[in-house]
Amino acid sequence: MSARVGMSSDAEKRAGKKGNRTGVRLKVARYIIKRTLLFIPAILVILFILYTLIYFLPGSRMAMMPISRGGDALDSLFTSISAPDNFFTKFVRYIYNIIAHRDFGRSTPSSAGLMSDIAYRIKNTLLLLLTGVGATIVVGVPLGIYAALRKGRAADRVVSVITVFLSALPPYTVAIVLAIVICVRLSLLPVTHVASDPKAYILPTVTIALGGIASVARMARSSMLEVLEQPYITALRSKGLPERSVILKHALKNAMIPVISALGGLIAQLLCGTFVVENFFMVPGLGSFMLNSLSVRDHFEILGCAVILIIILMCMNLVSDILYGFVNPKIRLRYAEKPARRKRKEAAG
Amino acid sequence: MNGKVLRSDRAGGIWKDALRRFCANRIAVISLAVFLLICLSCALAPWLTKYSYTAINVHNTLAKPSAEHWLGTDNLGRDILTRTLYGGRMTLRIAFASTVTALIIGSVIGLAAGYFGGRFDFLISPVMDIVASIPVILLALVFEAALGWGRGNFMYAIAIAAIPQFARLVHVCAASVMGSEYIQAARALGVGPFGIISRHIIHNVAPALIVRFTGALAESMLTCTVLGYLSIGINPPTPEWGNIIYHARNYIRLAPHLMIIPCAAISLTGISVSLAGDGLRDALDPRGELPAARGLTAGFLSLFKRRGAAN
Amino acid sequence: MDKDSMSDILLDVRELDVSFDTHTGKLHAVNKISYAVREGEVMGLVGESGSGKTVSSYSILGLLKPPAVINGGRVLYKGRDILGLSNKEAAAIRGREISMIFQNPMSCFDPVFTIGSQMTETVLANDKTASKAEAAARSIDMLREVSIRNPGQLMRRYSYELSGGMLQRVMIAMALLCKPKLLIADEPTTALDVTIQAAIIQILKKLQKQHNMAMLYITHNFGIVAEICDRVSVMCGGYIVEQGSTDDIFYSSAHPYTQLLMKMVPRMDTPLSEPLPYIEGLPSDPTALGEGCVFCTRCPYSRDICREKKPPEVSLAPGHTASCWLRADNASAESGRPSV
User: Fold this and answer.
1) Whether pTM exceeds 0.90
2) Which of A159, B266, C156, C159 is buried most deeply by CB count within 10 Å?
3) Which residue of C112, C123, C210 is the best one to mutate when testing the A interface, meaning the one whose CB has the most A CBs within 10 A?
């Protein structure tokens, strides 16, 4: 009897494990595909809004853009349906140029095109933004978790006070103070940005990250506190799990869910700081380029840069969304299900 | 653990209760007073100052604080106190206008999505997600380019960027209220949509909305000064806290007060708004149940409270 | 009763005293209560909500969090005081020696891990020698014991995909994975449908017999007490007011509170037109306990002395005690125990 039970459970386990792995993989794949597909219309909508805003400017060069590019696939399509030369066909042409030719327009007919002008600037901006986001998460999350675990004690209070002040300070004041103290008084680091010198990234990164650290730490703290109050944490303890695994495995993973879901907003928020830092430390990046374009009223360049930035940011959002799905099985499940069933479930719950 | 019912001594509804709790919170009251004082003095700038913010005096540049010029003068000999007050006028006006606009539009969108649900909800939620993912600075740049430069058009960008948070908050609240039994009961009794929205939804959303408003106000103000610092939006000589700092940074070693004063004004305003908002949160929501209320700076307040059990 | 007194006592709670520090003052949740659970016996802890049942059970496993404070007393498990152990020492007892199931199964599972991973983790945490495969096999066997049909599939599910009844079975299985000697069941059926309640109680009863483990069953429902318990302690306002075997309590209950509580169980034979019975008044405010008996404000028989002095604990029969002035008058002459 007992042998039979053991055998059957063994077989079941093996079958279960196999089914488990492929099932999860399938779900994850479906989730990623759906998420990615949902991003394309989102990007298109944003592009359309920005394009419309610029197009209807008096004297906008967008309106003067020709819809033919000289014999590519879209040209032949347009001639075959004898497409009119209007706002919509121009928008289609603009999008097609971006997708097919990586052409974001050119400000003068003779120029090499926006993309080649700003390729190295994109790199600088991205590098700053990514190090900023990285530093924010690496510092902010442990800080918030630590404060939550020491709730009400001195360490928690210190963290709380610091975050209140940091989040109320605009990023440029931080940049200015840091530059004066570290670069000018102590001359530890270079004031202006030198691309080849890795030390030159320290101050910009700190400046970008500080505001973000405050908000991430606060979010991580309150989310961790909320999780620690949950009945399942007590239940896990009651089963004899070591405290370390209760906190670092179970509580942490649950507490990270809201933090990761806010990552997209965080990236958008830190872009502001990145522009300030570019301006202050004189980093040749997209922000300074766009400000310059704005002052010479080159709408083509502004739109092009905005489009590029939006695409980059949306890709980052996508990554953080997928990450979110990995951490939160509920979301994964929602996307793996058929929408109709999901609706019904939500209505019931 | 056990839901112990403590003595409740409510006399006049939740608003009176909240007011009493707020008044008992010294930090919050002081913060609110500081914030109102800043707002008031900025609003009354034309009557409080005797100089014009454009009056240049080349014989008295970068002066130290004196009886004549309380906070000194800048590189063109303009009175710093005057410019700071007028700058705050601009900054706070933009912050208030954009946040109030966002509050109204966002609430209407959220109410509609929450009340009607269904297809409308299906349309609104992704749009709000998209709007929330556009960085405000890009939006501001495009608005400036599109609507003309230097006339404060970036205000619309700040407003649009703030809409989704209000819309989401009201949406979540309204949807949960709509899903509750007492709304079904009210409907069964023949209460119309207007009655349900005005009586039930708005009453439920209002506390969270007020708290969120203070947060959004502080954010809008910071965004406004960052844009001002980047010289987007407001043309000199019109002062704005951000652009005052931008122009002062060249004189940082000669006359640091040029920059410190507006910086201090921004930080003071930001901190007082967020502390007052925290106090409001604690007053309106003593048990921490509001969806949007979590994640504010409860820990800071616990510093000044005898019991360490905030949040 | 007396012959098997000391030797086989598994859990001995002595004068346990717990309070909460709230901003409106000290709230005494548990007042120097004492009870014992013998090996293989089911002890019922009965009382209305707020009477301190849950708090006293949490303190056994050291699961209380601030603002709860343990003021004194001892919890002897196999003769060893387990009150105030460090986290590490307590973890060695939790799960392996004493396990617990909770009131609301829906919120007692970590939502981001599968049922299976939580179960195997429990085995691995308590049995360092087990391999992962063994842990999974043991979990599946245990799930089968709580009458779950396809445990292999269930192991891959997340808690929010399952119903409350299902989750409560899983929770029982998880609590029994490491063969504890004592199971604390904190109102395990309160959050469930009535139909499922019966099934859960049957499972608990079966497994308790099968594993010969002791159980501390916390409930407010005397129907369940009759079903499953060997002995009963009745709690009111943080005090144990009556203690005895199930028969003692049911057939010769001595405390008015117990008698009233028992009348509260709805019966099939009462006509529908009659309103459901209830005890008049609210449980007395635990922050403002006076000198007298906790039940005096609601007791139909209360006299002056009830409001002035705490009633002594009176032994009515071997193993049957009650704290009530009504009994003290009659009984103090023959077995005058000192008042508590």
Assistant:
1) no
2) B266
3) C112
